[in-house]
Amino acid sequence: MRKIFILCAAWCAGLALMLAACNKTGSLTYLGNGIPGSVTASSTKIVLDISKMTTTDTSVLFTIKNANFGYDAAIANELQFDSVGDNWAKPQSVTLNAGATTLSYTTYNLNALALKLGLHTNAAGQVLVRLKSTLSTITVFSDAVTLTVTPFSAASSVFVPGAYQGWNPASADSLVSETSNGIYTGVINFTGSDLGFKITTAKNWTAAYGQGSTAGTVSLSGGNLTAPGNGGYLLTLNTDLLTLTFTPQWSVIGDAAGGWSADSQMYLDKTNNTWYVTTKLKSDGTNTIKFRFKNDWGTNLGAGAGAGTLSSGGSNIIIPATAAGGDNYKITINPTGLTYTLLKI
Predict the structure, then answer these.
(1) Is the same domain home to 38 and 144?
(2) Segment 77-103, tens digit of pLDDT
(3) Nearest CA to 105 among 140, 71, 151?
(4) Last residue of some domain: 248, 268, 295?
(5) H helices within the chain, ranges in order?
(6) Do 214 and 127 share a domain, yes or no?
């Protein structure tokens, strides 16, 4: 019995020593809450130079010091970037390679990051940078470093030649990426019975996006793309994901314009930012029309307080009596100025 007691006492003492060892630093294992690391920047006031847009310069070099979790282990590190006031709600994150202690940003990459965070071009704005370190289920964050960055405009374009304009890249309308982040948008007016088109990276046929392997995708080796129909559509091209979407814009609908179940898409006049369409209207003096956005009643315009005016969600616009087979009208709206015209032609 005495022997058993001695063995138990020894086992308990050993366990106590092991537990104590787990809280020691040095060569013994320690897994606490972790001590955050740190990040420093080679410069905290950066005016970006557009002449270095295409070079491999280093506009800023970040140096990190690893967090301390009490023992040597593979820590997952990220640099997080956010704008002042966002409170890290939607940070942009960059994962560092294992063992890396530095991360450099070129002028191009830092400019794109600053614009993505909402900084204005040619004006100094602030970007916060911190180190996020994770080991197992424990994550710690360093104190943030504040950079004052002045970005420049980095807009780039792709071009949309097609049947609607004679398949000429040199004179084709364009889609624009304000920050050169691979996402290009623009309204294209498609007309005629042939709705085919492609998207070129320059005003020539050197490289052109066509139809991808599945609906909604594009490929540099694909055949012609096809617009959903006549009218002005907002195109959104993502060259990273190789996707393309079409979003209808303003349209005319009503029992004077063929019924309440079919929209007649309007075209964008890019000179004065109005929308127009020439279509047949048929009315006995009581038939009506309205205008709606994205073929949806969530945003619609009807009659305003005065002649030729519009109001959000307003009443139907009455069309005067037409010939028995209807009359052709050019209809124009200004969704910003809330005005419209009906011109019989």
Answers:
(1) yes
(2) 999 999 998 999 999 999 999 999 999
(3) 151
(4) 248
(5) 2-21, 107-116
(6) no
